[in-house]
Every structure is written in C-alpha cells, then in structure tokens.
Amino acid sequence: MNEMNHDAGMPIAITLDAGTYYRCTCGQSQNLPFCDGSHPAGKSVPIPFELTERKKVYICSCGNSDHPPFCDASCGVETP
Ligand code: FES
Questions:
Q1: Any idea where the domains of the chain sit in the sequence?
Q2: Is the Cα dihedral 34, 48, 60, 39 positive or negative?
Q3: Is this prediction's pTM over 0.90?
Q4: For an engineered disulfide with 24, which of 29, 30, 38, 58 has Cβ 3.0 to 4.6 Å away?
Q5: Is residue 61 a contact partner of residue 8, using CB atoms and an 8 Å limit?
Q6: Alpha-carbon gap, residue 54 to 27, rounded angstroms
Q7: Cα(38) to centroid of ligand 1, in Å?
C-alpha cells in the first residue's frame, strides 16, 4: 500500500487499549494501520489520535472520511 486506497471502502475494525496512536498515511509502515516512522521526511504526516479507554474503533482505509483517522461511513459502510 503506497497510499490510502480510495477504492477500498472498508474500515479497519480494531480493539485498542487507551493510549496515543498514529495512523500511517503514506503506506510505507510495516505496522499498518499505524505509523512506524518509515514515511519520507516532509512528505506524509501521520494522523495522531488518542483513546482514553480500551475500545473498538473503525479506522478509515479509503481516505474519504471527514473525520480521519476514523471511518465516517463515507465509504458506504455503516459502523456501530
Ligand atoms: S473506510 Fe473511509 S469512510 Fe469508511
């Protein structure tokens, strides 16, 4: 994945512990969907997000969400 796949249209459902996370936006990470620092300097910027409790989240993989890094159903997939 070299960039967000705008045709993917499927959120990534994942349960995460409380903490700060960084959503990869360049596609070079070996730990997708999270940034591992592989992005070229000055190019892509990871999207930080914070969770205050363990919860299931739906990460946008299509790049069309108005509320990145989370899916907002712009892909046509409704999330709980
Ligand atoms: S996966 Fe991007 S809005 Fe749902």
A1: 1-73
A2: negative
A3: no
A4: 29
A5: yes
A6: 25
A7: 23
Lookup: tokens for 22: 């960084």
Q: What is the pLDDT of residues 61-79, one digit of tens each?
A: 999 999 999 999 999 998 8
In this predicted model, what pLDDT tens digit does every residue of 5-45 receive, in sequence order? 555 679 999 999 999 999 999 888 999 999 999 988 877 88
Strands 55-59 and 47-51 come out as unpaired
Residues with CB under 6 A from ligand 1: 10-11, 60-62, 64-65, 71-75, 77
Ligand 1: nearest atom to the Cα of 62 = 2
